[in-house]
Amino acid sequence: MKKIVTLLALFYAVVVIGQQKEMDSTAYLVRMEGDTTWTQTIALDDVYIFGKLSFKDKKERLRYYILRRKTLKVYPYAKMAAERLVELNDSLTKIDKKRHQKKYTRKVQKYIEGEFSDELKKLTRTEGQILIKLIHRQTGTTAFDLVKELRNGWRAFWYNTTASAFKISLKEEFKPQSVHEDYLIEDILQRAFAANQLKRQKSVLDYDYAELSNKWKTTKTESGSN
Predict the structure, then answer these.
(1) Looking at the whole model, is its pTM more than 0.85?
(2) pLDDT tens readout for residues 69-79
(3) In this structure, are residues 105 and 150 in contact, taking their beta carbons and an 8 Å threshold?
(4) Does residue 69 belong to any structural domain of this protein?
(5) 16 in a domain, yes or no?
(6) Residue 207 lies in a domain
(7) Which range marks the domain in which residue 118 is found?
(8) What is the arithmetic mean of pLDDT over 201-225?
(9) 166: number of CA atoms within 13 Å, CB side?
(10) What are the tens digits of pLDDT across the range 144-172?
(11) Gyration radius (Cα) of the chain, Å
C-alpha cells in the first residue's frame, strides 16, 4: 500500500513539473520600440462587450442619438486640447527662465486660439458644454482653470461670465459616476472607440467604465420597477 501511495505521489509530482515546464516554455517574441524581447505575457487593451441599447420610448431614443452626434463632433477638439497641453507642459520643463516660459506660453496660447476659434464659433450651446466636460475628461482640469493657468484669473473670470450668458460654465466637470448624461457620453465614446469611429485617448480621471455600466444599469432597472 505504501508503495502505491509513493508511486501516486511521484506520478503527481512528475505531472505538475511537466505542466510547469510546459508553461515556462510558452513565451512570445515581442518587438517594442525597436527592441526585441521574450515574454510569457502580453498586455492587451481592455475589451468591452456592449449590451444592446434600449430606450423606454422614442423621445429617450432621440435624445440619445442627438447626444451621440454632438459628442462625436466635439470629442476631437477635446483630444487635441489635451495633446497640446501635454506638449506645452513638456516644453516648459525644458525652459529655465520664467520670462521665457511666459513668452512661450503666450505663443502657444495664440496658436491654440487660432487653431480652434473658427471651428468653436460654429458650435451650439449644448455642443460647447459637452466640449467643456470632455476637456475635463481628457486633462483632469476644468476649462476655467486652464484659461486661468495660461492667461490670468481675470481672463478666466471674464470667459466664464461670457459663457454663463449662454448657459455654459467653464467650470463644468465630467462626472459619469453621478451624472447620467455624462455616463451616456462615456458610453458613446467607448462604443465609438471600439468601432474605430474615434481614436482612443484614455481619460485621466479615475473611474471604470464597466463598473459605471453596471451601476447605471442597476439604477435604471430599480427606477423602472418603481
Answers:
(1) no
(2) 999 999 998 89
(3) yes
(4) yes
(5) no
(6) yes
(7) 59-225
(8) 83
(9) 14
(10) 888 787 766 667 776 777 777 677 888 99
(11) 26
Residue 34 CA, chain-centre distance (Å), reads 28
pLDDT of the residue at 177: 95
Nearest CA-CA partner of 82 in 182, 221, 203: 203
Instruction: Look at residue 21 in the predicted model and tell me its pLDDT.
Output: 47
> What residues contact 110, with CB distance under 8 A and at least 6 apart?
none
Q: Of 37 and 76, which is predicted with more confidence? A: 76
**Would 17 be classed as within a structural domain?**
no
Q: What is the 3 state secondary structure string of the chain?
A: CHHHHHHHHHHHHHHHHHHHHHHHHCCEEEEECCEEEEECCCCCCCCCCCCCCCCCCHHHHHHHHHHHHHHHHHHHHHHHHHHHHHHHHHHHCCCCCHHHHHHHHHHHHHHHHHHHHHHHCCCCHHHHHHHHHHHHHHHCCCHHHHHHHHCCHHHHHHHHHHHHHCCCCCCCCCCCCCCHHHHHHHHHHHHHHHCCCCCCCCCCCCCCHHHHHHHHHHHHHHHHHC
Number of structural domains in the chain? 1
